[in-house]
Fold this protein.
Amino acid sequence: RTKTQNFCRNEYNLTGLCNRSSCPLANSQYATIREEKGRCYLYMKTIERAPFPRWLWERVLLSKNYEKALEEIDENLIYWPRFIRHKCKQRFTKITQYLIRIRKLTLKRQRKLVPLRRKIERREKRREEKALIAAQLDNAIEKELLERLKQDTYGDIYNFPIHAFDKALEQQDAESESESDAEKEEEDEEDADKREFVEADDSELSDFEDMDKLETSSEEEEEEVEQNVNRSKSKGKTPLKGPARRKRPYIEIEYEEETEPATRTKTA
Amino acid sequence: APPKAIPKTIENQRVYDETTVDPNDEEVAFDEATDEFAPYFNRQTVPKILITTSDRPRGRTVRFCEQLSTVIPNSHVYYRRGLALKRIIPQCIARDFTDLMVINEDRNVPNGLVLSHLPDGPTAHFRLSSVRLRKEIKRKGKEPTEHVPEVILNNFTTRLGHSIGRMFASLFPHDPQFTGRQVATFHNQRDYIFFRFHRYIFKSEKKVGIQELGPRFTLKLRSLQRGTFDSKFGEYEWIHKRREMDTSRRKFHL
């Protein structure tokens, strides 16, 4: 419905709008153009046939040639009111134009619309999510890469000296053992370390310089390896654990200081 | 106390597929030596890939195409202004392309992928879902460089999966440049193929770190055709028939 006019639902309507002048029911002398299967017909209705609804509409086939068809309309609707003639010709023009377009489009590629089924789509989406969780992609990729490294597909690009490799292995084993213990124990140890360190500080202030020297010589390697390992851990794991992990080196270094003299005295 | 039972997962309970490939299977090895990918695996052809879309690609699809072309070396993106696929295939063959990828889109989002190996090779039609462009991935890596990445194909067990896996492998040049340290992964899990593109770094002998760069998407195979793309007369090797194949939760085909 437009603002000023309604649409007419009658199939024999000429313009499509509901007016007194374009209603096939209101006018007893009326003509329309309709097309069936690509051919256009001119339908006419006259007063004489009004009581016979069966023969009310008279059908004339129009030629396929555009100009000839226009002439045919003219000669059939001769002596008819100008309005109906004009509108018939307009309608005929429009119809032929859209028929041409249909024929052109069918030659080109048509887009086939395949309807999605909502239930199936939801099912697939859910399954995909579950598959993603089951896949554990990052782990799988890391494993595969390590496998390839072991099988020497990379050749000699990555040089890991065996000494460092063994040390790294030991570090890993030591750390895995210490990690496998409950974290509470580690926390206790840290607290104990703190306490110990404070006490030691008070008593061994004189030996602190010696301690430094001891530190620099033997502890560098261990520190670095520790820190590297810790940093790598912190990168590999979630950032949440990052700062918590970073606190470790500081405390662990202190721990190392404690054990250094102990082991030395034992060996000595 | 009873010993701890192994939890039942869908992978454990998977219905045994009779087309599972045995690594020592001679028939399979013979087939693979003589099928359409033989020239690639014998290093006779260098892959050259044409990426295109359906009509009127929208921004997201265009960007996805561009990112794909950076991930896959030796690939070119060409737009399609109403060109029929049947006509561009002979042209591609004439210009020495080995593979053709068509990304289908729907409502501004890419949702289908047709991958066809060109000199009369198999055509695979996938459903593309969960596409993440590079800026949507939470990472801080740079864009992929021009180095040839490595390829990881996980979990392609059945015959069908094997052929699809080889199809993916044939997209990438055979000799990866390890200095690039990039790896493209196609991981099959329960008939969904997840694609990821990472940069890896070995921190020690036992530790590797990976950083995700590049787009990610998931594929689900819809059909596999023997020849090049032809919707009406093609000879289908495998179609996903929903009624028959989706009945069991533990049965997978790839």
